[in-house]
Amino acid sequence: MRIKFICLLISSLFFALQVQSQNFIIQSTDVSAYPLIRSRIQLSPATEAKAGEFKVLEDRKELEFTLKEATDSANTAKEKTLFILIEASGFTYGKALENFKKAVNESLSGVNAGDKVNVAYFGKASKTGRALNILSAEFTSDVATLKREITSQVSASRDTTYVADVYKAIYEALDFIVAKQNLPENKRLIVLSAAINNSRSPIKAEDCIEKSLRSRIPIYTITYKTGNRYAPDNFVRLSDRTNGETTLAKTQSEISAASKKFISRTTASKKNTGAYILEFTTANKANGRLYQYEVRYQNQRQPATYTTPVQESSGYGLYIFIIVALVGGGMAWFLYQTKQKKLAFESGKQAEQDALLRQASATGNRIQPEVNRQPERSQPVQVPAKDLKRTILAGGSTSPVLMVSAGTFSQTFTLSQPQITIGRSNGNDIVIPEATVSGKHAVISNENGNFYLTDLGSTNSTLVNNARIQGKHLLKSGDIIRMGAAQLKFQI
């Protein structure tokens, strides 16, 4: 006895957990107020939810949120979408089915002009697996045609073993409604049945409840009195948990009254429907990508996704692009002009050197470039105050001067020392920054007031008045000295 009791207790707990797992559903996610995300949560009807029972996570981080009860304006809309299901089985054959048909035909006369209606009858699932026989391919406002179809087509089997697949028919009907577009938002499913389901059906009541909550389509049920107390209890649970309503009826007048009430109902029930809106702010960027979040309620978890809108670019972006393009173009033009000027200058310098080479060649003096040497970078001579006696710029002195010109380099030196070295290297008294001038090119010596020029074995030799010198050469005022491409003038 104890073992049976324990097994029964475990089974009850397992069933309770299964039922509970169906009571928490994320129906939809709204991003119209991005970055504010609105998640619609459906709990069991009459559930009083508290914010402390929920958690919202995104990228494994818990977010702040607000929770409020959902208000469904769709339930108060005048236009409705009505799908009426009529059971046609061995349990409804005969008088019960005729009462169903008459009640539906009578109720359809009260449908509003803007309502969209469809009717289907169902029995045991066919070999194709379908339980529904839908009278119209689309929802329609033409109730006159539907009435004729109900009268001529809806029929049942006399065989009492022919048990209808009620839950499968309801499940298929919900799918049919959801698949249709441009229907009034106030949707409801009305089922007229004996409420005894085929035990072999793969679809159960919990499957119908979950789909009803997800699609936000309440289920209204009219149960034909069969004397079996279990049957109406099934529909009571089905309607109560989907925000619908149920009633027991047997006579045609009772069925008609219930049908009219369910079809014409336009106001929402005052009871707590168990629908809540959970709002949170996301940090995800508006880039049109799909993101996932998770809602936890008590010991349950439900993942959901949403797609962020694409942020529209402002006109300032175009202005910034134009400004950057203009500035960039101006900089490119400036750099181009600078480069062209540099090339022109270098070309002129090269032309000048070529002219000097041609002139030297015409006089029989060949000027050769320095071989395997890197030209040393020279700066104009900066003369410290203590070395003014060695090399100074001309200015009021009676000593001879040497005027040096090499490309862009031009400077005048006073020859006030007994001996003055000339070359490209920085260690010389006179430094000439020219590649064709040797490191130690020549020397000028003052001997008793006479100034002699001596070549120090330079590569391109030393010329005075276009004649190569040998040994010491006495300089005279006005002599033109050439050292490679550099020109020097001796002046007393």
From TrEMBL:
Please name the SMART domains in this protein's record.
FHA (SM00240)
Which InterPro entries has this protein been placed in? Cell_Proc_Reg/RNA_Proc, FHA_dom, SMAD_FHA_dom_sf, vWFA_dom_sf
Q: Which UniProt keywords apply?
A: Membrane, Signal, Transmembrane, Transmembrane helix
**Transmembrane ranges?**
316-336
Q: Which PROSITE patterns match?
A: FHA_DOMAIN
> Where does the record place the FHA domain?
420-469
The residues forming the signal peptide are 1-21
Pfam families listed in its UniProt record: FHA
Q: What is this protein called?
A: FHA domain-containing protein
